[in-house]
């Protein structure tokens, strides 16, 4: 009797959990938020921009904790910005090129397998469709139709069985690398602008650092909103998460700079 009651309670809790999940899903008449599809370019801009702002502002924070001058901040900041920008741009180029080369090579291999072991390859695809929940007859029919179109069959096998998307011929690795480099420079410059703009007006390093904080928060919020627009997420939550990420990184850098200064015995 106790086992039966426990089973009933477990089933009830599962039903309640399923109902709660259903409430969080869009209804039939409620359209989910649209995502902004802009290819690898948008991804490169957002990724490089976020990394640039956090990296550059963290560097400024550690320098400011050491009470160095604005000249030191600008020299180290610009040098670090350009070096990291080149590194990230080249890294994006190599990553995209490697991914495309791997996909092209895998497609050649799959094409050879289909040409030389067509029947066994078709059976593997049928079993894969069955594993995804498709009826045997339907799976056989689908594969039979695809077998008439070898290029489509090869692409389908790569996607379904190997989880590899066919190489995008329109995607240019050098373009992604250039976009990443430019985005890194543009957004990474935001924290440094305060030290440039305020030079004629004040020599107070604390005011300049405060200005860098404000500009960094604004830049992070813009990128957070852009990320939410791309992914169809909540703007406020995305912006807050992005700002929090930058704040934690900058606070850590500032604290480390302050501690190292004290350990080294350097005092004001």
UniProtKB/TrEMBL annotation:
GO CC term, one of those recorded: vacuolar membrane
Pfam families: VIT1
Catalytic activity: Fe(2+)(in) = Fe(2+)(out)
UniProtKB keywords: Ion transport, Iron, Iron transport, Membrane, Transmembrane, Transmembrane helix, Transport, Vacuole
Membrane topology annotation: Multi-pass membrane protein
Ranges annotated as spanning the membrane: 178-201, 207-225, 237-260
UniProt biased composition (Basic and acidic residues): 20-34
InterPro entries: Ccc1_fam
Subcellular location: Vacuole membrane
Chain segments carrying region Disordered: 14-34
Keyword Transport: yes
Ion transport keyword on record: yes
Top-rank taxon, per record: Eukaryota
GO MF annotation: an example: iron ion sequestering activity
A GO BP annotation: intracellular manganese ion homeostasis
PANTHER family reported for this sequence: FE(2+)/MN(2+) TRANSPORTER PCL1 (PTHR31851)
Entry's family note: Belongs to the CCC1 family.
Known role: Vacuolar Fe(2+) uptake transporter.
Name of this protein: Vacuolar iron transporter
Organism: Aquilegia coerulea
